[in-house]
Amino acid sequence: MKTKVFIDGSEGTTGLRIDERFQTRDDVEILKIDPEKRKDPQERAKMINASDITFLCLPDAAARESVSLVENDKVCIIDTSTAHRTEAGWAYGFPELSREHREKIMHGKRIAVPGCHATGFISLVYPLVAGNILPKEYPVSSFSLTGYSGGGKKTIANYQAADRPETFSSAREYALSQQHKHLKEMQKITGLKRAPLFSPIIDDYYSGMVVSVPLYTDMLQGRQTPETLQQYFAKYYADQKFIQVAGTEDEVIQSGFLPGNGLSGWDGLKIYVTGNEERIVVSSQFDNLGKGASGAAIECMNLVLGCQEDKGLNL
């Protein structure tokens, strides 16, 4: 029997990518809403309650409205918006973080998919805090380089316009007020005592991102070096299909350059540890549309269904 899936917000970037990923699957039936009624609460309620799983690919307010339309206890909601990522009762959709995270996703009816910047940051900081290597009081800073597709349809159109400003040809730092919407989950999920100083950068390429966290070794617990942290991450994420940890022989580390679009089109995430005995930089490289959005949403659905967690994904 096929799983009935409804994508609420199927016209957005994430919704379109989720829909595309189902084209080769024979275990899923996509419930299609009349395009003229896609913003009609009654029609959306009908589709949501007829589904086994509903993906929310909507602005926060609309996502909250969709949840309020659920009238039965069988529908599983997988929300890709920011609306529910730190709310009680919602599983945080990053199963590789811990056994508890995985169990909550597998058995949950309310799952919040992490933000793209947050995915990269949390993949690095959560294990270090959990292993008592990074003190919760550490004044964490981070910078993140991303392709323009993460900004959604309007940003994509602006970057691809023939008459776009010349400044769009260069990297542009944004969220200068230190109020980025991913900060809340970045702090809460990792358990940090204060929000990190976070500097996201958008650049002139379509997809892919690198999130980096610089660390002073004398402020970490134990005698940490790039080698010890690489070994720690490799052990922490051992046997995780979606996460790789680069060794010292990795061609990126050998080259000295870490490209933002190096894993575009791939649904996993790769961690790099670089630096020296005084200063270390830990970095995560992945596709903001893959592990950073639609790929992560499908991974969560696969866990809920009990099938191979990488089914329909590119690893």
| Secondary structure tally, helices | 10
**Secondary-structure class:** alpha/beta
- From the N-terminal CA to the C-terminal CA, the straight-line distance is 26 Å
Order of helices and strands: EHEHEHEEHEHEHEHEEHEHEEH
Quick one: biggest sheet? 7 strands, mixed
* Strand coverage percent: 15-25%
Radius of gyration: 20 Å
The helix content is: 25-40%
The number of strands is 13
Task: Provide an overview of this structure.
With 315 residues, the protein is α/β, with parallel strands linked by helices. The protein is built from ten helices and 13 strands. The protein has a seven-stranded mixed β-sheet. Strands 2-1-3-4-6-5 form a six-stranded parallel β-sheet, sandwiched between helices. Strand 11 (243-245), helix 9 and strand 12 (269-275) form a beta-alpha-beta unit. The radius of gyration is 20 Å and the shape is globular. The chain starts with a strand and ends in a 10-residue tail after the last helix. The relative contact order is 0.15.
Layout of secondary structure:
Blueprint: E1 3-8, H1 13-21, E2 28-31, H2 41-50, E3 53-56, H3 60-68, E4 76-79, E5 91-92, H4 99-106, E6 110-112, H5 116-130, E7 141-147, H6 152-160, E8 172-173, H7 183-190, E9 197-203, E10 209-216, H8 226-236, E11 243-245, H9 251-255, E12 269-275, E13 279-286, H10 290-305
Parallel strand pairs: 1-2, 1-3, 3-4, 4-6, 5-6, 7-9, 11-12
Antiparallel strand pairs: 7-10, 8-9, 10-13, 12-13
Helix pairs in contact: 1-10, 5-7
